[in-house]
Amino acid sequence: MNYINDLKERIDKIEKGGHEKYHQKNEEKGKMFVRSRLKQLFDEDIDVEDAFFANNMADGLPSDGVVTGIGRIHGQDVCVMANDSTVKAGSWGKRTVEKIIRIQETAAKLEIPMLYLVDSAGARITDQIEMFPGRRGAGRIFHNQIKLSGRVPQVCLLFGPSAAGGAYIPAFCDIVVMVDGNASMYLGSPRMAEKVIGEKVSLEEMGGAKMHTSVSGVGDVLVKSEEEAISYTRHYLSYFPPNFREKPAAVEPKTVKQFEKSITELIPENQNAPFNMLDLIKQLIDEDSFCEIKKKFAPELITGLSRIDGKAVGIIANQPRMKGGVLFPDSADKAAKFIQLCDAFNIPLLFLMDIPGFMIGTKVEQAGIIRHGAKMLATMSEATVPKISVVVRKAYGAGLYAMAGPAFEPDACLALPTAQIAVMGPEAAVNAVYANKIAELPEEERPQFVKEKQEEYKDNIDIYRLASEMVVDAVVDPDKLRSELIKRYQIYEAKNVTFTERKHGVYPV
Amino acid sequence: MTEIKASMAGNVWKITVNEGDKVEEDQDVVILESMKMEIPIPAEEDGTVKELKVAEGDFVNEGDTIAIVE
Which end of chain B offers a freer environment for a tag, N or C, measured as fewer CB atoms within 10 Å? Predict the structure, then answer.
C-alpha cells in the first residue's frame, strides 16, 4: 500500500501551500491562508477542486499558486479561483493561467456564478512566453470574463495586490470588494512610476483600497478585514440568481420597524433644504436589507440592493444631503453600471428622485458630463426589468429623464404630494424669463415682482396639474408608498419584454 | 489636521461655526449655495476649527479649502 501513503504525502505537501515564512508574513498583515479563506467563504468548504496537482513536479509551486474549483454559497454552486500568495507571491505561470481559464469555462458551461479571490503580484516573467501572448494566455482570462459578464454574477474579492494586466480581473467583475490596507490595483507600481515617468507616489495613494473606492470608482466596497469581505460577498450574492435566465430568490418578508418620524415629517417642504434620503429608503424596504454599493464614491447618488416584501429591488436615489443631489460625471457613471447589473440579473429597479439636475459649469463640461449623463440615460432606458420611478420632491431638467422619468417607459411614475416637475426650479426660471424686465424695474419693486412670478410659476407646475395631464400615473400618500410599491412590483413581475432587436447599441461611453 | 474642502462649486451662503469652535464629525461647518440648493459641508472628523478660509458670499470652486480643523 505504499502508493496510498505516497499519494497522501503529496496531498499533504500541496495543501500546505508555500514556505512557512510566507505564511507568517501574510499573518502579520492580517491575511488568511487561501484555503482558510475558501473554508469561510463556502457553506462548508470547497467541494471539488481541479488541477490540485498542477506543476507538482516543480519545486515550491504547489497547485501552481492558485486554487480552482466549486463550492456552495447559500446552497448554490459557485465557481472560484483563489490566488495563493504564499506561492511566488501568487504570481501567474502557464498552469495558473490555464487553471483560471478552465474554471471560467466551467462557470460558463454550468451557468453558475464565478468568484475571483485575488492576491497576486502578476505575471511570472520567467514564464512569459507560455502564459502571456498566446491563445490560452492571460488575455483569454479577460476575454472569458467579458463573455461571462451579464450571464453569471462575477465578484472580485481583493485581498492583496492586483498588478499590471492582473488589474483587469477586478475591472471586468460586477463588483470589487477591497480590504483596506492590503488590497491594491495599479497598472504600474510606484517603483515603475518613478523610473518611467519620474513620479514619486505611495502605493496607497496611487492604487490603495481607499483611493479606488472613493476617487477612481474602480473598487466598489471598502472593508476593514478579510472576514468582512467574505461576509459582504455572501450577503451580496443572496440578492442574485445563479444566471441571467433565472429570477432572484425571494426570502421571508420582513416588516419595517416603527420610526420616530413618518416619511411626511421627514421631507422638508422647502425644496432647496437638504434631508437624508437614506432615512426615506429605510422606511420603504425590509428591515436591515440594504446592501449599499459604492457608498464612498459619488455619494450624491445612492445605489444599493434591498428587499421589499422579501423580494430583491435595486435602488437608485438622489441624495440631497450630498452636493445637493446634483448629478455629476461620476454619479452618472455609477448609476449606469448599477442599472446594468440589476437589469442583467432580473432585479427590479426603483428610482427615487429629488434632483435639481445635472451639474453645470466649465469643470464638468470638460469632464464630459454630457456623455457620462448619456450613459446613464442609455442604460436606464434599456433596462427591461420592472421599473418604478418616484418623484419625491423636485425633478428638474434632464434630472427627470436620467431618473426614469415618464418618457423612458417606467412601469409607473409615481409622485408624492411634495413633487415638483419642471425644466428648472422657480428661482432659475423667473430669472431666465424675466431677466430684462427685472433689470428695468426700480430696485425696491424687484423682490415683490420676483416673488409674484415665482408663485405663478409654482402654480403652473403644480403636481395635481401634472397628474391631470397624466404626466405621472398616481399621486401617493408618502406614508403609504411602501404598500403601493409592494402591490405594483407584484403585478409587474409578469413583465417580459425585449427592448429592441439589433446586434447592440452604440454606447455613449 | 484636516482641510475641509468644497465638494462642488458654489457661493458660501452661511458659515455655521467660528474659529476656535469645537466640531464633531458630520457637523456642518459651512453651507454653500449652488444649483439653487443648500449644500452643507460637514467636518470629516472631531476637532477644533483652527482657521476659516472663506467669508459669506465668497465663490468657491470644487476642491477649494474652506476651513482647517485640528
Answer: N
Q: Which of B7, B9, B38 sits opposite A363 (nearest CB)?
A: B9
Q: What share of chain B is helix, strand, coil (3-state, %, to 5)?
A: 0, 55, 45
pLDDT tens per residue across span A152-172:
999 999 999 998 888 899 999
| Closest-CA distance of chain B to residue A426, Å | 10
- The Cα–Cα gap between B58 and B38 comes to 15
User: Which contiguous run of DSSP H or E holds residue A389?
Assistant: strand A387-396
Alpha-helical (H) ranges within A444-480 are: 446-460, 463-468
Residues A257-302 have pLDDT tens digits of: 889 999 999 999 888 899 999 999 999 999 999 999 999 999 999 9
Closest CA to A169 of A116, A113, A232, A106: A116
For residue A412, give how far its alpha carbon lies from the nearest alpha carbon of chain B (Å). 28
- What pTM value is reported for the model? 0.95
pLDDT(A36) > 80:
yes
Using the beta-carbon criterion (under 8 Å), do B40 and A321 form an inter-chain contact? yes
Contact A349, A388 (CB under 8 A): yes
Say if the Cβ atoms of B7 and A322 lie within 8 Å.
yes
Burial of A16 (0-12, 13-18, 19+ CB in 10 A): middle
Question: For residue A346, how many other CB atoms are within 10 A of its CB?
Answer: 19
The ipTM (two decimal places) reads 0.84
For chain B, the residues whose C-beta falls within 8 A of a C-beta of chain A are 7-9, 34-40, 61-62
**Which residues, numbered 321 to 360 in chain A, qualify as contacts with chain B under a Cβ-Cβ cut-off of 8 Å?**
321-326, 328, 356-357, 359-360
What gap in Å lies between CA A380 and CA A374, rounded to an integer?
Answer: 10
What letter does residue A31 receive in the DSSP assignment?
P
Residue in the block written with cell 488575455: A139
- Alpha-carbon distance of B18 to B15, in angstroms, equals 8
Inter-chain contact A363–B34, Cβ cutoff 8 Å?
A: no
All domains of chain B in start order, with CATH: 2-69 (2.40.50.100)
In angstroms, rounded to a whole number, what is the distance separating the alpha carbons of residues B49 and B68? 6
Q: What is d(CA B57, CA A72) in angstroms, rounded to the nearest whole number?
A: 59
d(CA A65, CA A55): 9
Distance CA A90, CA A101 (A): 16
**Alpha carbon distance B39, A2 (integer Å):** 75
